[in-house]
TrEMBL record:
Organism, scientific name: Nonomuraea mangrovi
Keyword Oxidoreductase listed: yes
InterPro entries on file: FAD-bd (IPR002938), FAD-dep_Monooxygenase_BioMet (IPR050493), FAD/NAD-bd_sf (IPR036188)
Record-linked Gene3D superfamilies: FAD/NAD(P)-binding domain (3.50.50.60)
Name of the protein described by the UniProt record: FAD-dependent monooxygenase
PANTHER family documented for this protein: MONOOXYGENASE, PUTATIVE (AFU_ORTHOLOGUE AFUA_6G14510)-RELATED
GO MF entries: monooxygenase activity
Record domain FAD-binding: where: 2-337
Segments forming a coiled coil: none
UniProt-listed Pfam families: FAD_binding_3
Protein keywords: Monooxygenase, Oxidoreductase
Amino acid sequence: MKALIIGCGIGGPATAMALQRVGIDAEIFEAYDVTADNVGSFLNVASNGLDALRTLGAHKEVLTAGIPTPRMVMWSGTGKRLGEVANGLALDDGTVSHTIQRSDLYRIVRDEAVRRGITVSYGKRMVAYQETSSSVTARFEDGTEATGDLLIAADGVHSRTRALLDPAAPAPRYSGLYSFGGIVKDADFTGEVGVYNMIFGKRAFFGYTVAASGETWWFANLPRELGDVPADWKATLIEAFSGDDNFAAELIRRSSIDLALPIHDLPPVPTWHRGRVLLTGDAAHATSPSSGQGGSMAIEDALVLAAALRDEADHEAAFACYERQRRERVERVVAWSRKISNSKAAGPVARVFRDLMLPIFLKKSAGDESLAWMYRHHIAL
């Protein structure tokens, strides 16, 4: 059996490695003609995602490249400490959630897939596919094509495959937030190493953690109408955090703002598979970064899919088994993440209510097992 995997982000290589473990050949086709080694800011790989990488034997370099970040402390824009919650739950060997630059995570999983003999072809933007009773053929913008037994979509929230599979599929929905991020090494900005500080500012949300190297890794979420692009994002961000009781505005002043990304997620997607074609990762169930679970969900998908293809009688039964095992979990994560994102874009009245109620909520959910459904999820392969 051979699988054509569309997309070489994080989910694509993870899926290829998982399929290889169960004896299925895979080839990855990436739309862009260059790699994404220097693309993106940073992200959280929660303990469940690290557990999934460990199952693939691909977690050790991720731990080396990332920052252990086991705790999150919440603050109001006035400087009031609202509470603390665990950022994931430790694995059985003590491993905690890590924060890593997206480019590093991408490079690690891609390079590991290549090391294991998996081919990655670049400049292959799929424009159509065609199925027969025994195969599926992907056709690319450059006029080439590839044929396999299965076509697995790992092409992200704006998936071309999803639109081809089901033209009536829901479009990505804008969260109301633009995202920014950066890394600054400056002795004026300090904090407890490895602790995420999450600040609900008066006009925007700010988060940061400090690495052992002394670097401050920061991100910001700014409520804004989609497409409302100012002449100067940096000045707009500084203004958004002016008056807050923290160093966000000054940290941004000393940073470069290279990228402003509107945050999207997906409402429930009715059709995940048809025939020999299947959606995975963000193509099926994109979540906002607020959950810190996007990459982890894609890696989990890879393991579940490989196990289903190994254990079920044929690909149709395997795809149905995959959906049964994944849909409820991932849609719960998407909904949970969207609720967090909505709290970041709260208006004046909602902001007051949030700051009053959040300490109570955090105290109730501070127990290690309150989010066990998310962080203690283990998938064997």
